[in-house]
Design a protein that fits this description.
This protein is α/β, with parallel strands linked by helices and 214 residues long. The chain folds into two domains: 2-151, 3-Layer(aba) Sandwich (Alpha/beta knot), CATH 3.40.1280; 164-212, Orthogonal Bundle (Trp Operon Repressor, Chain A). The protein is built from seven helices and nine strands, in the order βαβββαβαβαβαββαα. The protein has a five-stranded parallel beta sheet, with helices on both faces. Helix 2 (64-74) packs parallel to helix 4. The chain is elongated, with a radius of gyration of 22 Å. The two termini are 32 Å apart. Bound molecules: adenine. Adenine binds at residues 85-87, 130-132, 134-136, 139, 142.
């Protein structure tokens, strides 16, 4: 899968993309993430990318000419599913993540200030996504959340131990939250591991785990 990210702050992605499973997925060429600096498409000497809103009011709006130039430059040679992050968007769920993981190319547009001119959304964006009912300073953190969640579903990205099969919100657990986990020691500060997990009785363990789903 290839993910192109259009952002004013590409440096924010260092860390989430350069550590752990996402770093390994990119090294193994299962995932390619290309960061595009929106500022490069800005206008004039100061590379302006935003302007004041028609109708007045506080804040700035990202200009459609700048943003569409950037989108078209990225989407020139390939069919790309285009996502814009906004609290107004559809809430990101595990089902949506699984659906997006099947796409070959994603473009993630990260908004800032008051967001982008509505004409960009109407003409060049396939869907608007929110990661929750709260407001962030921009679309970068939502983009990182989506990349992380989607990458886990690309075949081969997770090792056997990290499998995305029986986990919270997976189809195999009826989209419910996972059962709790325990490891050694058997007793920790007076708190014991549930007896059933030490019983070696696989059917009973299965039953117990199923009952814990919520
Ligand atoms: N941009 C600002 N807040 C956001 C949110 N909650 N989800 C997606 N994009 C956002």
């Amino acid at each position: 899968m290839q993910i192109d990210v259009l952002t004013l702050f590409p440096a924010m992605f260092t860390g989430p993309l350069t550590e752990s499973i996402l770093a390994r997925a990119q090294a193994e060429k299962k995932l390619t993430v290309e960061l595009h600096d929106l500022r490069k498409f800005g206008l004039g000497k100061y590379k302006q990318i935003d302007d004041s809103p028609y109708g007045g009011g506080a804040g700035m709006v990202m200009r459609p000419d700048v943003v569409v130039d950037a989108i078209e430059a990225i989407c020139k040679k390939k069919k790309v599913h285009r996502i814009y992050f906004t609290p107004r968007g559809e809430k990101l769920t595990q089902e949506k993540v699984e659906e997006l993981a099947k796409k070959k190319n994603l473009l993630l547009l990260c908004g800032h200030y008051e967001g982008v001119d509505q004409r960009v959304i109407d003409g060049w964006i396939d869907e608007e996504i929110s990661i929750g009912d709260y407001v962030l300073t921009g679309g970068e953190l939502p983009a990182m959340v989506l990349i992380d969640a989607v990458a886990r579903h690309i075949p081969g990205v997770l090792g056997k131990e990290e499998s995305a099969h029986e986990e919270s919100f997976s189809k195999s657990l009826n989209r419910k939250k996972e059962y709790p986990h325990y490891t050694r020691p058997e007793e920790f500060r007076g708190m014991k591991v549930p007896d059933v997990l030490l019983s070696g009785h696989h059917k009973k363990i299965e039953e117990w785990r199923r009952k814990q789903l919520s």
